[in-house]
Amino acid sequence: MIDIDNVVAGYSAEIDILRGMTLQAQGAEIVTLLGPNGCGKSTLLKTIAGYLLPRSGRITLRGEDVSQIPVHRKIRHCGLGFVPQTDNVFSALTIRENLQVGGHYLPKAECARRMDELCALYPVLARKMDARAASMSGGERQILALARALMPRPGILLLDEPSAGLSPKVLHEVFDAIVHVRNQERVTILMVEQNAMEALRISDRAYVLSMGAVALTGEAGALMRDEKVRELYLGDRAH
Ligand SMILES: Nc1ncnc2c1ncn2[C@@H]1O[C@H](COP(=O)(O)OP(=O)(O)OP(=O)(O)O)[C@@H](O)[C@H]1O
Ligand SMILES: [Mg+2]
């Protein structure tokens, strides 16, 4: 469960980027965050993960107030997986090594078992275990980033634009993998996306953000059908 209550945060003392952000996600659901460039979507994920600490407001994960816990403790302590918008794999390392980094906290045998499990799920990884991540295509890299975050079996997954730069076909492969994580691993997923319509198709609910706060929220299907939402926020690309 993710409960963000009236969170204010920013990078410098004078400027607030998140200006009273309030949202929730719980159980096995995909919640998508939409909104224009610069409105604070990545900042919100970074604040939930603990790269930034809120100035005020509360972040509760799985029932525990973790507002002031920094990232290095939070990822392990809260069962949190985070795939950032950029630099989400270690290019110089092999696929196997990337997965080992993700499973860093696990006992060795458990790490190996989990790696086998994820390779069975994502054959593209199994085929190239000893190749460097730098040699992967964009879509393969997103799958690796997802698998790396899944190594310690997180209960909560934060994904920042997992479909960025992908062709429609590969986008669907990555989104299928995300749906599988929700359905099979029962993970609560908070996902930032620019491909709004495609993202809403696989989401349960969504929030539209504007200038560091929630402008509107609703069930994904209802938002997709809402003419005004389509026109104002989604560029009406659904036809
Ligand atoms: N590391 C940083 N230091 C200072 N300001 C930052 C930093 N990262 C982001 N910002 C500022 O915070 C604001 C929100 O940025 P953020 O990255 O959260 O936007 P976003 O909604 O994810 O945008 P995009 O859709 O382009 O990824 C922007 O004005 C940006 O310039
Ligand atoms: Mg961003």
- What count of helical segments does DSSP give? 10
Kindly report the name of the CATH homologous superfamily of the largest domain: P-loop containing nucleotide triphosphate hydrolases
- How much helix is in the residues? 25-40%
Number of strands: 10
Query: From the 3D coordinates, which CATH architecture of the largest domain would you assign?
Result: 3-Layer(aba) Sandwich
Strand line-up across the major sheet: 6-7-8-3-9-10
Number of domains: 2
Order of helices and strands: EEEHEEHEHHHHEHEHEEHH
Which regions contain 5 or more consecutive residues with pLDDT less than 50?
Answer: none
* Ligand types: adenosine-5'-triphosphate, magnesium ion
CATH uppermost class of the largest domain: Alpha Beta
Gyration radius from CA atoms, angstroms = 17 Å
Strand content: 15-25%
Query: Would you tell me the structural class of the helices and strands?
Result: alpha/beta
Principal-axes geometry comes out as globular
Describe the oligomeric state of these chains in a short phrase.
Answer: single chain
Per the CATH scheme, the topology name of the largest domain is Rossmann fold
Salient structural properties:
239 residues, alpha/beta, Rossmann fold, 2 domains, 6-stranded mixed β-sheet, 4-stranded antiparallel β-sheet, 10 helices, 23% strand, binds adenosine-5'-triphosphate, binds magnesium ion, branched-chain amino acid transmembrane transporter activity
